[in-house]
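Before relying on records like the one below, remember that each one covers exactly one chain. Contacts with other chains, cofactors or solvent are not represented anywhere in the record.
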Amino acid sequence: MSEITYMLQAVGRGEAAASEELLPLIHNDLRRHAGVQMARESAGQTLQPTALVHEAWLRMIGDGRVWQNRAHFFGAASEAMRRILIENARRKSRLKRGGDQLRVDVEHLELASTTPEEKVLLIDDALERLHLQDPERARVVLLKFFGGLTNQEVAESMGVTERTIERHWAYAKAWLFQNIREQQ
């Protein structure tokens, strides 16, 4: 059993010091996943990868969940990061907070343009619809797109072959693209 799995189980048993010992072990991996997420965000993003990691960590530790192994933990971390980014995008796009409003000349106005926050929300809405239709393929999208995992890491996490993940990813990308295009 790896040290990380042992520490995850200790956290699940409620050992007080375990979460303090676990964070340094996984911080670099979480930071790498957060960096992948933040690379997809708009240039004016105020949320930093380290802040994303810490916010996800606080949510995960606070909800009292028990993780079976490293793969299960990183899947939960991907979901937590996804939710934080979605909340951030929704907050930014609210009209009462000013959203992403800029002063523009009417002559240069593009009515069909989509902000990065709106794109994240479109992807999230489409992912929710995919989850209702095909939860396994939606999990592949979650782990790859929001979690930044490789095909091999996703395959290990889900207990399937890498080729299965490649097929699921190809299908999910096409399905999401079509579904988002229909929603615009």
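Residues 104-111 have pLDDT under 50 and may be disordered.
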